Amino acid sequence: MSPHNIAQPALYQEVAERLRQRIFSHELEPGAWVDEQTLAEQYGISRTPLREALKVLASEGLVTLKPRRGCYVTQLAERDLDDIFPLMALLEGRCAFEATQRATPADLKRLESLHEKLERQAAKGDINGFFEANHAFHEAVQELSGNRWVKQVIDDLRKVLKLTRRDSLRLDGRLKQSLEEHRRILAAIRERDAATAEALMHAHLLSGRAALAKMHAAALSPNPSPAGGRGERISHG
Amino acid sequence: MSPHNIAQPALYQEVAERLRQRIFSHELEPGAWVDEQTLAEQYGISRTPLREALKVLASEGLVTLKPRRGCYVTQLAERDLDDIFPLMALLEGRCAFEATQRATPADLKRLESLHEKLERQAAKGDINGFFEANHAFHEAVQELSGNRWVKQVIDDLRKVLKLTRRDSLRLDGRLKQSLEEHRRILAAIRERDAATAEALMHAHLLSGRAALAKMHAAALSPNPSPAGGRGERISHG
DNA sequence: TCGCATAATACTGTATCCATAATTATGAAT
DNA sequence: ATTCATAATTATGGATACAGTATTATGCGA
Description:
The structure is a homodimer. The first copy, chain A, is mainly α.
């Protein structure tokens, strides 16, 4: 239509995205204090758009704002993971159900193509590649479900989950197990067995939670205190 | 424990809350343009905290930001309602299931007390009172479910739903019907029949969607254009 | 040497100012 | 009279400056 539909994104949006990436990559790790001035100088911008970006990230739950104190990267407790994973299991399970009923032959073909990529990454033993392919498959299922709000909620929750390290795939045979779960999910979708697809997807998510718990149990030496700065100012009260 | 835990909320938070109330009360109706300068003058503050408040509201989905164009109250399409209500049905249904299993006798007592309030408001024919009592009951069920993240997601979605007028309760026998549905839900919880409680809660939400659809079908003359201002600048491309 | 009070410092919160882009108004040409 | 181009206006986006509060450092007293 008109040329001004190609609206250039506002600066605070770009800043928010860059901060997200730094949080997801754990360059900014949970508990780390975020200094407005320092970051603004780093990016060569003023504090105004940076502050707006932080407000957005706070709404997403990635950072926590303490009025007149500052802002730190949100720390998830085990309790949070115990809440979020079953929720994701419920939502993604539902998506699998709907997707199974709505998928056209062309959609199935695409799902299979995405799954094959997953198989290849697994064969290569590429953890990051597997992670990305896994995400692509799940996202495709969510889109096939046809409910944009469910997908939106799942995306938001996934962002929060990315606060935790994603190396549970490195655990013993977790990658192989995850792959096998995917195979069975795809099979159920292909066979138009919506109820089974839902159940398997549900179990798949809970399986992911279990792997994470196992990993956390193994590493029983969590970072005792948030990364320095202005001293310990977090009071979980 | 230290005195600074009584952190005074930042100005942008108060502004955000006041704007939420104006949106929920439909003083600011969907599609209405939000003028930063005008609002800042109204509240006697500068544009800075106001802009931060708008970023927060945008993250919540209550307003839509058009970079370099401005900001208007989000308009929900029927499609959105068709997506959100089934999602709420899924989530609140799950809450009912969990709540049924976890409720202590004291919890049951409280639920019954909340339901009685609903009965009283219905008897009085107080629509707003019924609405509030209804909300209180649903919220109690969500809290009993014990999953804070599910409750959080439901709360967020409920805020978005408040963009629509809530007068579907005025429809023919909708209030009576809603009350009856509540009675059956409470009965199922009391009888520790989690599966039935889930099913009934699920149906209750979908029933709410149906009432809204009926109302929208009746009023087939929607506001043709967003409330004035700088002319029609919304392009739903 | 340790604890507390006070001063210094650094960061967040808010206001003001400037730049830029979008919309509206104006005017000329067809 | 209508349409298009151009100028003026207005609102948003971003930067800077100032105020207030929380933390840290310093020094006094026990």
